[in-house]
Amino acid sequence: MARMTMIEAVRSAMDVSMAQDDNVVVFGEDVGYFGGVFRCTQGLQAKYGKTRCFDTPISESGIVGTAIGMAAYGLKPCVEIQFADYMYPAYDQLTQEAARIRYRSNGDFTCPIVVRMPTGGGIFGGQTHSQSPEALFTHVCGLKVIVPSNPYDAKGLLIAAIEDPDPVMFLEPKRLYNGPFDGRHERPVTPWSKHDLGEVPEGHFTIPIGKAEIRRAGSAVTVVAYGTMVHVALAAAEDAGIDAEVIDLRSLLPLDLDTITNSVRKTGRCVVVHEATLTSGFGAEVVALVQENCFYHLEAPIVRVAGWDTPYPHAQEWDYFPSPGRLAQALAEVMGA
Fold first, then answer.
1. Count H helices, E strands: the chain?
2. How many CB atoms lie within 10 A of CB 167?
3. What are phi and psi of 148, to 5 degrees?
4. What average pLDDT does the segment 217-241 reach?
């Protein structure tokens, strides 16, 4: 198989989908001639033409609203919001229109759109280029929410999302675009070309939406993570020397609750880690579900490791960013309880 970065895997997913189905269209700010700010759509306009891959005005509400109208008439838009931080003007369209079309029409209409957006920090982007808003989508009935952690999953899940009849929020951790960042900012990042999950089939394949993956088997404690934090969790488990089982959620909505609960019932302990702010972050939902379903198996309180409850701080990025050290400390705390 070819070795791809996550950028190349995302681009390959759109390329495969556009070649297979003429109804798939790609648009957003700078995605055409320029190929996107991260070059995820580079070459697609030249290959498929300006009617299937094109630039839009700087209007996130307009991008998503147009996609909804196209979807209602049978097209399959895959649109890009340049950064997840910019999705707020489109939130009304996503929550009041896209998420409800199936329900409001009693199943007569669906809304097969994918909204791609680079998410998370770790690139010194400051408060308006580093946010992790996934919890705002998981609260909305009718949306699906995906956060891949590697190129293989990114391609398989994006093709599955494009083929899905309902709206999918596809959040791409920008710190993982070129390599599996483990939170150690002082060290060079290993490129995906040297990582097994950088091996990606060049043709069509899908990964089921709603199925988590166990990245590291263990029996002492369950670590639930997604996106960049999967690699931080793996590093922390190694540093702490703890037999931790690391679960990569991949899909937040629908959520693979069985994989989580089966693991916690085995280990008796659980740590949940995410990059977003702590209060009302998606980790709170995971904690509640584990508490409800695994209470009599727990040997210690569940612990969360997350970003601070503050706007993303440019000058204090690496203190804000959940690190292997912070997570290793939480693991030790849970094991000592």
1. 12, 14
2. 31
3. -75, 160
4. 97
For residues 115 and 96, give the distance between their C-alpha atoms in angstroms, rounded to a whole number: 15
Pairing of strands 144-146, 2-3: unpaired
Is-catalytic flag, 129?
yes
Amino acid identity of residue 133, one-letter, is P
Question: How far does Cα 322 stand from its chain's mean position?
Answer: 16
Nearest to 230 by CA among 247, 245, 207, 252: 247
Residue 254 preceded by cis peptide, ω within 30: yes
pTM, whole model, 2 decimals?
A: 0.97
% of residues, the chain, pLDDT over 70 = 100
Average pLDDT for residues 70-95, to the nearest whole number? 97
Q: SS3 for 234?
A: helix
Instruction: Kindly report the length of the chain.
Output: 337
Token pair in block for residue 323 = 């690190």
- For residue 337, what pLDDT is reported? 80
User: How many CA within 13 A on the CB side of residue 108?
Assistant: 3
> What is the rounded CA–CA span in Å between residue 279 and residue 65?
30
CA 264 to centroid of chain Cα atoms: 23
Catalytic residue of the set 129, 204, 297, 314: 129
How far apart CA 200 and CA 146 sit, in angstroms, is 18
Average pLDDT over residues 72-85: 97
Question: Read out DSSP for 287-331?
Answer: HHHHHHHHGGG-SS--EEEEE-SSS--STTHHHHS--HHHHHHHH
- pLDDT given for residue 1 in this prediction: 84
Give 186: exposed, middle or buried? Use CB within 10 Å, 0-12, 13-18, 19+: exposed
Average pLDDT, the chain: 97
E strand map for 66-143: 76-80, 114-119
**Per-residue tokens: 119:** 């998410």
Question: Is 46 in a helix, a strand, or coil?
Answer: helix
